[in-house]
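My hope is that you will study the record closing this message with an eye to the fold:
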Amino acid sequence: MTSQADRAYWDETTKQLLGWPEVLAMLQPVSKAGLRAKREIRPFGPQEHALWQERMEDLRAVQAVRDDAAWVKELQEELQMVPDLRALFQLIGQGATLRQADFFEVKQFLWHGYAVEELLVQKGLVFGWWEALAWEPLLRRLNPPGPLVPAFSLAELAGDVELLRLHQELSVLDEALFAEKKAQGDRLRAQYGRKPGKDGQLVFDKLDAALGVARQDADLMLLQDTVFEVVFRTAESLAMTELVQRREAKLAEIEDQETATLQALVEAFRPDVEAMSTALEALGRVDLTLAKAALANKWSAGLPEWITAAGQSVVFEVKAEAVACAGLQGVSSAEHPADAHPVYIGWSIEAGFHPVAREAVEKRGGTFTTLDFELQPGVGLITGPNMGGKTVVLKTFGLLQALAQHAMPVPARRYRFHPLERIGVSGGDEQSMVSGLSSFGAEMQRLAALVNGTGRALLLLDEVARTTNPEEGEALAIGLASYLLNSGHSALFASHFPGVTEVSGLQLYRVAGLKRSLLDHLQQASEQSDVLQRLQSAMDYTLVKSGPGDVPKDAVRLAECFGLPQAVLDKTQAVLQRKEGPTG
């Protein structure tokens, strides 16, 4: 389900480029209500700090107690059993007639919801939005006299004397009918030496001496007469016919009474349907929060810190022992006293990573380099060699921002963020066979949509204008960077164009790049996979501050490592030397 807030915040292209679907798949509530809460998850805008902070306090509280694995397991088991009764609650609210099976589902909801509340109380978890439901009195309405049980039967309900009497009378009729059938079977066995089968049939061979008697027996009716055998079925005696008729009449009475009882239950629960609906939503929220805490533990994640308009960082006071158990990188309020002067008013990332990218690197046997990065409101520029991780930096930054504004844990030791109305990513190659646009045309169309969109944005732009001729492409990148500096948006560029680094006011970074001492080892690799593995070990993916004109030039060396013919490389070097002119 895509909410209006979600659509305003970002588009599907941005979600896909940031790897949002893959990361969101790691969030795994166990209940139907929790899965619905996950589908309805949305970003919180700059004016929704109080709502965002409430979600983060939920996460902190659950994270602090989830070191008790047995308790977590029991809580998840109870949540998993909670049925999603939104549609059923609507029917009760409308006064519709329900079935007995429907009220069994209502009892399961009450039974397991009550268990969840007791488990939360056991750990002292108190949420301001959790409205206590009268679980036990509601359960009593669907319970026989005595201790509470999870099962449900209309016939056993406390106080329904009439229905209980009718069922008792039905039992008497059933016993009498069984006794009559047994007596008939016993007589036939005494007469013919065998009882009818389960299908009520009795088969005689044509040469059987008892066949003549059987044809005259009032308890047998001819079913089939063949060349070799005669088949009879048991006939219903007058006594049995009377019992069957009385039983059918009793069932009709029970049906009428059950309908009346079910309708009475609907009316009894009708005043409580809003409270039960609220409780269902609350159970889903608990489940989603528990899933967030599990994800935080998996990532050894920190809690994002919202930078207010005044430049102050909103943090939470977390007990050290709780943080240690949960793997949280917490920040105590003591580290940031109320009267301290704020240092950051934009973004700060410490040891951040993209879970999908890190998993891919580690599967190849590599070591993922985490991201340390600061950006003030404005425009940042990242330069660096090909395959140096610039795109991963953009995606990591964007993902952290999205997770933070969705009140999720972030895969970073620490993430301070400035909330914005929207986020947008351009991947640099937006070619569309459907629209008929070239790569450059599609890219310009997307950039225009991102820049002209409503609301202040965080824009992540990868290799702007790389798909047109380099001279015009560099000019476009310079023009866009200059425009964004005064647009009210914040942006992070990744570019190879050296001219962009000369734009005044940009916050300049570059990937540290190839370690010169290891380049010779790359050239010795014989297989492409070996080259990639050695490249990862030779590349320093650390993001460092840089200055104007600082653009690494490693493309030719990388091309050599990947086996491009030497003649191509020689010609390339000659062209570069002519462009650079005589040295010294």
The domain at 4-158+261-295 is CATH 1.10.1420.10 (MutS, DNA mismatch repair protein; Chain A, domain 3). The first strand starts at residue 201 and ends at 205.
